[in-house]
Design goal:
globular; alpha+beta; 47% helix; two-stranded antiparallel sheet; 11 helices; five-stranded antiparallel sheet
Amino acid sequence: MVSRINQINNFLKNNQIETKNLIPIKNDASFRKYFRVDKKILMDADPHLGEDVGSFININHVLREFKLNVPEIFTIDKENGFLLLEDLGENIFSQILNSENEEQLYKQAIDVLVEIYKKDLNKFSNFTFLEKYSVEKLQDESQLFIEWYLKKYLKINITDTDIKDFKDIINKIFNNLDTKFEKLVLRDYHVDNLILQKSKLGLKQVGILDFQDAVLGSSSYDLISIIEDVRRPISKDLKNILIKYFIDLTGYDSNQLEKELAFYSVQRNLKILGIFSRLNLRDNKSKYMQYNDIAWKYIESNLNNPTMSDLKVWLKKILPNAK
């Protein structure tokens, strides 16, 4: 069997690129790897590790139709899981944010979400390949919290009845939200995945990375993803400013948005606790556990929304001393 490094070398050789110039880029929690090489980016998405470049390619085409800034794809090797991409630069939002530019950069990020929100998907590409962010999918994600955080990390013997109650509560809250599944939801929309390109104009100043897990659902998911990011919390005042900014630009009903933000924040952060526990226990990546306290702060804050009362009671029962 050909080693992965040999596959990389062959791919680069076929594209007339010197492999000696390959520079690894710091990777996040996924199995995908990225390298800089000859002013381009190599995405290494090994199919044997469950990765697939197909979704990235599809969503890339959609976002380009939206006239948004995503990397141009120069070369595709689907079988072996390689893409050669445009390099959008190194001005990652999370690394250049400071007290002076914070509000402006976050508003630019939200301008992109507003643009996506305003798009009528029926006027663009065929979206049949996109999965709906259904309650079933949300339940699958929430199981990470139960399996990896409660059972394997905290070693809690949770009963089948308690698990069923949890699922029923998630179902009830989600159904009451009455989600229409009509907007593109990027799902990994946070400041580590955005790049500032000052040389470009308008919305294209914001380069977007890591969108391959996009689904159809509510734009509120991406909004809460960026304003409640465990790796870069922002002040409550700025959070409120950004929510109002989003409402002013979209006309979103404020009461509906408040309910959606509360639910997606809690669901998302429970999932994060599960993912971080899995990274710690299965993949020996313990550094993510440092964010657990922040995730719990978001969960506890949003559980105060009246729509979350049943889930608040359930969590208190299972975790009387949460964290």
